[in-house]
Amino acid sequence: xxxxxxxxxxxxxxxxxxxxxxxxxxxxxxxxxxxxxxxxxxxxxxxxxxxxxxxxxxxxxxxxxxxxxxxxxxxxxxxxxxxxxxxxxxxxxxxxxxxxxxxxxxxxxxxxxxxxxxxxxxxxxxxxxxxxxxxxxxxxxxxxxxxxxxxxxxxxxxxxxxxxxxxxxxxxxxxxxxxxxxxxxxxxxxxxxxxxxxxxxxxxxxxxxxxxxxxxxxxxxxxxxxxxxxxxxxxxxxxxxxxxxxxxxxxxxxxxxxxxxxxxxxxxxxxxx
Length: 273
Prior knowledge:
An eight-stranded mixed β-sheet has the order 1-2-4-3-5-6-7-8, sandwiched between helices. Helix 2 crosses helix 3. It has helices at 37-43, 69-82, 95-107, 134-137, 141-153, 155-166, 168-171, 178-186, 191-203, 229-238, 255-258, 260-272; strands at residues 2-5, 11-17, 22-26, 48-52, 88-93, 112-118, 217-224, 243-252. The radius of gyration is 17 Å and the shape is globular. It is built from twelve helices and eight strands. The chain has two domains: 2-130 and 205-272, Rossmann fold (3-Layer(aba) Sandwich); 138-197, no CATH class. Helix 1 links the parallel strand 3 and strand 4. The chain is of the alpha/beta class.
């Protein structure tokens, strides 16, 4: 474990475990290296597993600038260059998948051998031309503005509502639990960081980038996830390389937590394919 001093003076926390083919695990919005910790425990026996906290998350620094998905792609590039990696396997969950799209948009597939995206659409807002957005394609522009207003007023309220959508178990909690649970959902994350990255994530459209994916791609889609089959179909039909799609029946957006062993096994099979 260690810290990488970025070009803009932010600090990135990263961990390396195991030896062999390098895999970089990229967590999602409001999460940290802990997301992939159980999976790393399995895969570090056969691979060099590298996980890191994206800027503003976990043990990385809390910069006030550079809080965009475009910058997250640059951060990933800096880490790859710093560690002098070649033929990397990228594994991105949720916003981590957007980080992969961002990387490919800016740097192509340089140094990348294969990529795994876990439940992340190339465009998060649905409209007349796109039905593959968030909340199973039901999330429209009006929802985005409503969310931004809520985050500006009380991000704890927003986190409560968001995780009740992501995890059905939270939906069963009584409303009076909100004041107890919401602070824990925010965790160590900065309100400013989360708001800026949410804005950036939902404003971007990576559909034109998909054709530039020139390495094999594995897309994992959970039955109870945030994104519909349309997102997976678009990737499969428009990627510049082969796309494998694996379904996870009965699993929510949090595949790394809920289906750790299956996901690790599927990733290993995909790498060795």
